[in-house]
């Protein structure tokens, strides 16, 4: 199993890989008589409305299984290993850095303990195929409290596509969050133009001057904003500075076009915005390196999707949008293509994070012998330049 350094920032600042917005879904569960397992992935916090009863009892905003029973009158209680489970397809495959198991509003009916497992199954597997997959425990079986958001850090550096929540012996969980770093399959992006800043491809809003009203992570979230609260909004500035968000792109690339969207920001859109870029592929640090202009300071209109063609040129790994003096943006889209160095770096990150069997299979399908594929996989992380070049050439074809 490969490992990676744990980020210094709280894992809750990372993308929720189990977000419905990214395409996550509950693909299988053994039991959800009381409340649908799909409720685990609802974006908003769980709510409770007392004395709202349906045919099966109090309506709960979460996943709730029926009460387990033993096998006979002499053994009326479930065994210690009896449990219910739900399998979640992650909306974007990636490295899991932390899990939240939230029992909000479940007080007399929460599980005694829970665990979380993860698996990597490429393609579009059926529930039956997922049951037979190799599952790895990323959160060991742990006691739960009622009406509590339990945070569990994860140090496993493997790329996963699915997680399984196990609850012992039964009960209810309101929400499941799986925070981590998106790590796309480089073969699916190779040769394409796409939104280099998008969460679904690995873009991360890693720093911001202000997040008073809403999160900068909304800037590169999937889809269009539906209300002002879906975007990023700052407090009103009372000095002569400006606000900004810094985004680490999915990979080093050329940004060909930008969309600066002020939809729903009518009385609080910025007056102007500019874009600057940074290339960290040389080892320089964005905190103290040289930034360069991508889009000069440009007038913005309220409630408008602004589209700008940019001159292809210097490669970038990070982009900062500066808004003047303050205000809010709904979305930022940065259409572009990976550079040669960017595609190679992404391919290596992906290869180094794959489960060993999957890494070997990828290389053998690309034309390496079984022995060559096994040797390169065993030597991960691929740091030697010759080995790295072989991996990239095999996976991407050149």
From TrEMBL:
<dbReference type="InterPro" id="IPR005164">
    <property type="entry name" value="Allantoicase"/>
</dbReference>
<dbReference type="Pfam" id="PF03561">
    <property type="entry name" value="Allantoicase"/>
</dbReference>
<dbReference type="GO" id="GO:0006144">
    <property type="term" value="P:purine nucleobase metabolic process"/>
</dbReference>
<feature type="domain" description="Allantoicase">
    <location>
        <begin position="23"/>
        <end position="182"/>
    </location>
</feature>
<keyword id="KW-0378">Hydrolase</keyword>
<protein>
    <recommendedName>
        <fullName>Probable allantoicase</fullName>
        <ecNumber>3.5.3.4</ecNumber>
    </recommendedName>
</protein>
<feature type="region of interest" description="Disordered">
    <location>
        <begin position="53"/>
        <end position="80"/>
    </location>
</feature>
<comment type="pathway">
    <text>Nitrogen metabolism; (S)-allantoin degradation; (S)-ureidoglycolate from allantoate (aminidohydrolase route): step 1/1.</text>
</comment>
<dbReference type="InterPro" id="IPR015908">
    <property type="entry name" value="Allantoicase_dom"/>
</dbReference>
<dbReference type="InterPro" id="IPR008979">
    <property type="entry name" value="Galactose-bd-like_sf"/>
</dbReference>
<dbReference type="GO" id="GO:0004037">
    <property type="term" value="F:allantoicase activity"/>
</dbReference>
<comment type="similarity">
    <text>Belongs to the allantoicase family.</text>
</comment>
<dbReference type="GO" id="GO:0000256">
    <property type="term" value="P:allantoin catabolic process"/>
</dbReference>
<feature type="domain" description="Allantoicase">
    <location>
        <begin position="202"/>
        <end position="337"/>
    </location>
</feature>
<keyword id="KW-0659">Purine metabolism</keyword>
């Amino acid at each position: 199993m490969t490992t990676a350094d744990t980020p210094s920032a709280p894992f809750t600042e990372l993308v929720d890989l189990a977000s419905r917005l990214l395409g996550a879904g509950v693909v299988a569960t053994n039991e959800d008589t009381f409340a649908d397992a799909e409720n685990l992935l609802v974006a908003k916090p769980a709510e409770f409305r007392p004395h709202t009863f349906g045919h099966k009892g109090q309506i709960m905003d979460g996943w709730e299984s029926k009460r387990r029973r033993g096998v006979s009158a002499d053994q009326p209680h479930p065994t210690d290993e009896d449990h219910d489970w739900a399998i979640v397809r992650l909306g974007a495959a990636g490295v899991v850095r932390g899990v939240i198991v939230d029992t909000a509003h479940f007080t007399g009916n929460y599980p005694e303990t829970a665990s979380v497992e993860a698996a990597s199954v490429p393609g579009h597997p059926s529930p039956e195929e997922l049951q037979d997959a190799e599952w790895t425990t990323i959160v060991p079986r742990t006691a739960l409290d009622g009406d509590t958001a339990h945070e569990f850090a994860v140090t496993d550096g493997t790329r996963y596509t699915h997680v399984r929540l196990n609850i012992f012996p039964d009960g209810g969980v309101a929400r499941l969050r799986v925070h981590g770093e998106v790590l796309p399959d480089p073969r699916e992006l190779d040769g394409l133009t796409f939104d280099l800043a998008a969460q679904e491809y690995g873009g991360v809003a890693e720093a911001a001057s202000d997040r008073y009203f809403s999160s900068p992570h909304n800037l590169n979230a999937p889809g269009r904003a539906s209300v002002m609260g879906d975007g990023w909004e700052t407090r009103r500035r009372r000095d002569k500075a400006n606000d900004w968000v810094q985004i680490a792109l999915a990979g080093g690339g050329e940004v060909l076009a930008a969309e600066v969207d002020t939809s729903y920001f009518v009385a609080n859109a910025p007056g102007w915005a500019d874009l600057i870029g940074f290339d960290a592929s040389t080892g320089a640090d964005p905190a103290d390196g040289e930034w360069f202009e991508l889009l000069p300071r440009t007038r913005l209109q309220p409630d408008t999707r602004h589209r700008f063609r940019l001159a292809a040129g210097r490669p970038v790994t990070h982009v900062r949008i500066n808004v003047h003096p303050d205000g809010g943006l709904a979305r930022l889209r940065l259409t572009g293509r990976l550079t040669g160095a960017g595609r190679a770096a992404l391919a290596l990150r992906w290869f180094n994070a794959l489960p060993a069997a999957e890494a070997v299979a990828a290389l053998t399908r690309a034309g390496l012998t079984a022995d060559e594929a096994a040797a390169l996989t065993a030597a991960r992380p691929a740091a030697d330049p010759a080995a790295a070049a072989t991996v990239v050439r095999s996976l991407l074809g050149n």
